[in-house]
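Q: Could you predict the 3D structure of nitrate reductase (quinone)?
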Amino acid sequence: MPLGLHNFLFVVYPYICLAVFLMGSLARFDRDQYTWKSDSSQLLRARQLRWGSNLFHIGILFLLFGHTVGLLTPHFLYAWLITAPQKQLLAIVSGGIAGLICFVGLTMLLHRRIADPRIRRTSHRTDLAILCILWVQLVLGLVTLPVSWSHRVDASAMLILADWAQGIFTFRPDAAGLLTVGWQFKVHMVLGMTIFLLFPFSRLVHVWSGFASLAYLVRPYQLVRSRRMDLSTHASAPRDGEKA
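A: Sure. Here are the predicted C-alpha coordinates for nitrate reductase (quinone):
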Protein backbone atom coordinates (compact mmCIF):
# COMPACT_ATOMS: atom_id res chain seq x y z
CA MET A 1 0.00 0.00 0.00
CA PRO A 2 1.40 3.47 -0.92
CA LEU A 3 2.46 5.47 2.13
CA GLY A 4 0.18 8.38 1.22
CA LEU A 5 -2.89 6.13 1.02
CA HIS A 6 -1.85 4.41 4.26
CA ASN A 7 -1.64 7.73 6.12
CA PHE A 8 -4.97 8.88 4.71
CA LEU A 9 -6.79 5.69 5.72
CA PHE A 10 -5.42 5.53 9.25
CA VAL A 11 -4.86 9.20 10.12
CA VAL A 12 -7.44 11.27 8.21
CA TYR A 13 -10.22 8.79 7.39
CA PRO A 14 -10.99 7.92 11.05
CA TYR A 15 -11.86 11.56 11.81
CA ILE A 16 -14.03 11.82 8.69
CA CYS A 17 -15.95 8.72 9.77
CA LEU A 18 -16.34 9.91 13.37
CA ALA A 19 -17.52 13.38 12.27
CA VAL A 20 -20.14 11.93 9.91
CA PHE A 21 -21.14 9.37 12.54
CA LEU A 22 -21.84 12.00 15.21
CA MET A 23 -23.13 14.92 13.16
CA GLY A 24 -25.08 12.69 10.79
CA SER A 25 -26.85 10.93 13.66
CA LEU A 26 -27.76 14.27 15.22
CA ALA A 27 -29.02 15.65 11.91
CA ARG A 28 -31.15 12.58 11.21
CA PHE A 29 -32.70 12.69 14.66
CA ASP A 30 -33.47 16.38 14.18
CA ARG A 31 -34.85 16.16 10.63
CA ASP A 32 -36.18 12.61 10.14
CA GLN A 33 -37.34 11.28 13.49
CA TYR A 34 -40.00 9.08 11.86
CA THR A 35 -37.24 7.08 10.14
CA TRP A 36 -35.47 6.50 13.47
CA LYS A 37 -36.49 2.87 13.83
CA SER A 38 -35.37 -0.65 13.07
CA ASP A 39 -38.15 -1.41 10.51
CA SER A 40 -38.90 -4.83 11.93
CA SER A 41 -40.78 -7.41 9.85
CA GLN A 42 -41.47 -9.63 12.83
CA LEU A 43 -44.78 -11.00 11.53
CA LEU A 44 -42.94 -12.96 8.83
CA ARG A 45 -40.74 -15.91 9.79
CA ALA A 46 -40.97 -14.89 13.44
CA ARG A 47 -39.08 -17.91 14.78
CA GLN A 48 -36.09 -17.38 12.49
CA LEU A 49 -36.13 -13.67 13.30
CA ARG A 50 -36.21 -14.34 17.05
CA TRP A 51 -33.25 -16.74 16.98
CA GLY A 52 -31.24 -14.71 14.49
CA SER A 53 -31.88 -11.38 16.20
CA ASN A 54 -31.05 -12.67 19.69
CA LEU A 55 -27.83 -14.37 18.58
CA PHE A 56 -26.78 -11.36 16.52
CA HIS A 57 -27.41 -8.80 19.27
CA ILE A 58 -25.74 -10.90 21.98
CA GLY A 59 -22.65 -11.34 19.84
CA ILE A 60 -22.43 -7.82 18.44
CA LEU A 61 -22.87 -6.12 21.81
CA PHE A 62 -20.13 -8.26 23.33
CA LEU A 63 -17.84 -7.50 20.38
CA LEU A 64 -18.57 -3.78 20.53
CA PHE A 65 -17.88 -3.64 24.26
CA GLY A 66 -14.80 -5.83 23.93
CA HIS A 67 -13.29 -3.81 21.10
CA THR A 68 -13.96 -0.54 22.92
CA VAL A 69 -12.45 -1.64 26.23
CA GLY A 70 -9.66 -3.66 24.68
CA LEU A 71 -8.42 -0.97 22.31
CA LEU A 72 -8.99 2.16 24.38
CA THR A 73 -7.73 0.96 27.79
CA PRO A 74 -4.07 1.95 28.29
CA HIS A 75 -1.75 -0.94 29.02
CA PHE A 76 -0.62 0.40 32.41
CA LEU A 77 -4.18 0.29 33.77
CA TYR A 78 -4.43 -3.48 33.52
CA ALA A 79 -0.75 -4.50 33.65
CA TRP A 80 -1.02 -5.16 37.41
CA LEU A 81 -3.85 -7.63 36.81
CA ILE A 82 -3.09 -9.34 33.51
CA THR A 83 -0.20 -9.38 31.06
CA ALA A 84 -0.54 -8.32 27.43
CA PRO A 85 -0.20 -11.91 26.08
CA GLN A 86 -2.84 -13.11 28.54
CA LYS A 87 -5.13 -10.28 27.49
CA GLN A 88 -4.67 -11.16 23.83
CA LEU A 89 -5.41 -14.83 24.53
CA LEU A 90 -8.56 -13.80 26.40
CA ALA A 91 -9.57 -11.58 23.50
CA ILE A 92 -9.00 -14.38 20.98
CA VAL A 93 -11.08 -16.92 22.90
CA SER A 94 -13.93 -14.66 24.01
CA GLY A 95 -13.98 -12.67 20.78
CA GLY A 96 -13.93 -15.85 18.72
CA ILE A 97 -16.91 -17.30 20.59
CA ALA A 98 -18.87 -14.03 20.39
CA GLY A 99 -17.92 -13.64 16.73
CA LEU A 100 -19.23 -17.10 15.88
CA ILE A 101 -22.48 -16.45 17.76
CA CYS A 102 -22.91 -13.14 15.96
CA PHE A 103 -22.01 -14.73 12.61
CA VAL A 104 -24.67 -17.44 12.98
CA GLY A 105 -27.32 -14.90 13.99
CA LEU A 106 -26.45 -12.47 11.21
CA THR A 107 -26.39 -15.26 8.62
CA MET A 108 -29.90 -16.26 9.71
CA LEU A 109 -31.11 -12.67 9.40
CA LEU A 110 -29.49 -12.23 6.00
CA HIS A 111 -30.89 -15.55 4.73
CA ARG A 112 -34.33 -14.57 6.00
CA ARG A 113 -34.34 -11.32 4.05
CA ILE A 114 -32.98 -12.85 0.85
CA ALA A 115 -34.76 -16.22 0.78
CA ASP A 116 -38.29 -15.03 1.59
CA PRO A 117 -39.80 -13.10 -1.37
CA ARG A 118 -42.25 -11.23 0.85
CA ILE A 119 -39.54 -9.96 3.19
CA ARG A 120 -37.24 -9.19 0.25
CA ARG A 121 -39.91 -7.03 -1.39
CA THR A 122 -40.51 -5.04 1.80
CA SER A 123 -36.80 -4.60 2.58
CA HIS A 124 -34.97 -1.42 1.70
CA ARG A 125 -31.82 -1.73 -0.33
CA THR A 126 -29.91 -0.15 2.55
CA ASP A 127 -31.15 -2.93 4.86
CA LEU A 128 -29.63 -5.62 2.68
CA ALA A 129 -26.50 -3.56 2.06
CA ILE A 130 -25.75 -2.96 5.74
CA LEU A 131 -26.41 -6.63 6.58
CA CYS A 132 -23.99 -7.71 3.85
CA ILE A 133 -21.35 -5.24 5.03
CA LEU A 134 -21.69 -6.42 8.62
CA TRP A 135 -21.46 -10.04 7.46
CA VAL A 136 -18.23 -9.35 5.54
CA GLN A 137 -16.86 -7.45 8.55
CA LEU A 138 -17.55 -10.42 10.81
CA VAL A 139 -15.82 -12.78 8.38
CA LEU A 140 -12.77 -10.49 8.30
CA GLY A 141 -12.76 -10.36 12.10
CA LEU A 142 -12.78 -14.15 12.29
CA VAL A 143 -9.99 -14.27 9.69
CA THR A 144 -7.77 -12.18 11.97
CA LEU A 145 -7.98 -14.75 14.78
CA PRO A 146 -5.32 -17.14 13.39
CA VAL A 147 -2.97 -14.17 12.86
CA SER A 148 -3.60 -12.97 16.41
CA TRP A 149 -2.93 -16.49 17.66
CA SER A 150 0.49 -16.46 15.98
CA HIS A 151 1.33 -13.23 17.88
CA ARG A 152 -0.02 -14.42 21.24
CA VAL A 153 3.46 -14.78 22.78
CA ASP A 154 4.39 -11.09 22.59
CA ALA A 155 0.94 -9.58 21.79
CA SER A 156 2.70 -7.21 19.40
CA ALA A 157 -0.25 -6.79 17.01
CA MET A 158 -2.69 -6.04 19.83
CA LEU A 159 -0.41 -3.42 21.38
CA ILE A 160 0.15 -1.70 18.02
CA LEU A 161 -3.58 -1.56 17.30
CA ALA A 162 -4.32 -0.27 20.80
CA ASP A 163 -1.69 2.47 20.49
CA TRP A 164 -3.19 3.55 17.16
CA ALA A 165 -6.78 3.63 18.50
CA GLN A 166 -5.78 5.55 21.63
CA GLY A 167 -3.82 8.01 19.49
CA ILE A 168 -6.92 8.66 17.38
CA PHE A 169 -9.12 9.41 20.40
CA THR A 170 -6.48 11.59 22.07
CA PHE A 171 -5.88 13.53 18.82
CA ARG A 172 -2.34 12.19 18.48
CA PRO A 173 -2.76 10.02 15.38
CA ASP A 174 0.22 7.90 14.38
CA ALA A 175 -0.11 5.21 11.73
CA ALA A 176 3.59 4.32 11.51
CA GLY A 177 3.21 1.23 13.68
CA LEU A 178 0.46 -0.15 11.44
CA LEU A 179 2.95 -0.64 8.61
CA THR A 180 3.99 -3.93 10.23
CA VAL A 181 0.42 -5.18 10.78
CA GLY A 182 -1.09 -7.82 8.49
CA TRP A 183 -3.48 -6.92 5.70
CA GLN A 184 -6.32 -8.74 7.48
CA PHE A 185 -6.28 -6.22 10.32
CA LYS A 186 -6.04 -3.25 7.96
CA VAL A 187 -9.01 -4.29 5.82
CA HIS A 188 -10.99 -5.10 8.97
CA MET A 189 -10.20 -1.65 10.39
CA VAL A 190 -11.06 0.26 7.21
CA LEU A 191 -14.37 -1.55 6.78
CA GLY A 192 -15.15 -1.00 10.46
CA MET A 193 -14.59 2.74 10.07
CA THR A 194 -16.75 2.69 6.93
CA ILE A 195 -19.61 1.20 8.94
CA PHE A 196 -19.41 4.24 11.24
CA LEU A 197 -19.50 6.41 8.12
CA LEU A 198 -22.68 4.69 6.86
CA PHE A 199 -24.27 4.49 10.31
CA PRO A 200 -26.46 7.66 10.14
CA PHE A 201 -27.87 6.65 6.74
CA SER A 202 -29.00 3.17 7.74
CA ARG A 203 -31.29 1.45 10.20
CA LEU A 204 -28.35 1.15 12.59
CA VAL A 205 -29.32 4.50 14.11
CA HIS A 206 -31.79 2.66 16.35
CA VAL A 207 -28.73 1.60 18.39
CA TRP A 208 -28.78 5.10 19.91
CA SER A 209 -32.30 4.44 21.20
CA GLY A 210 -31.08 1.28 22.90
CA PHE A 211 -28.38 3.17 24.77
CA ALA A 212 -30.77 6.03 25.56
CA SER A 213 -33.21 3.58 27.19
CA LEU A 214 -30.61 2.97 29.91
CA ALA A 215 -31.59 6.40 31.25
CA TYR A 216 -34.82 4.82 32.52
CA LEU A 217 -32.77 2.96 35.13
CA VAL A 218 -31.83 6.20 36.87
CA ARG A 219 -34.86 8.38 36.19
CA PRO A 220 -36.75 9.76 39.22
CA TYR A 221 -40.09 8.34 40.27
CA GLN A 222 -43.19 9.83 38.65
CA LEU A 223 -46.07 11.06 40.80
CA VAL A 224 -49.30 9.68 39.34
CA ARG A 225 -52.70 10.68 40.75
CA SER A 226 -55.95 8.93 40.00
CA ARG A 227 -58.77 10.69 38.17
CA ARG A 228 -61.05 10.33 41.22
CA MET A 229 -58.54 12.24 43.36
CA ASP A 230 -58.31 15.00 40.76
CA LEU A 231 -62.13 15.36 40.63
CA SER A 232 -62.48 15.43 44.42
CA THR A 233 -59.77 18.05 44.71
CA HIS A 234 -61.43 20.18 42.04
CA ALA A 235 -64.87 19.87 43.70
CA SER A 236 -63.57 20.87 47.14
CA ALA A 237 -61.72 23.93 45.84
CA PRO A 238 -63.49 27.25 46.63
CA ARG A 239 -65.06 29.14 43.73
CA ASP A 240 -64.34 32.77 42.95
CA GLY A 241 -66.08 35.03 45.48
CA GLU A 242 -66.60 32.25 48.00
CA LYS A 243 -64.82 31.94 51.30
CA ALA A 244 -62.58 28.98 51.79
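Q: Anything worth pointing out?
A: The mean pLDDT is 83.
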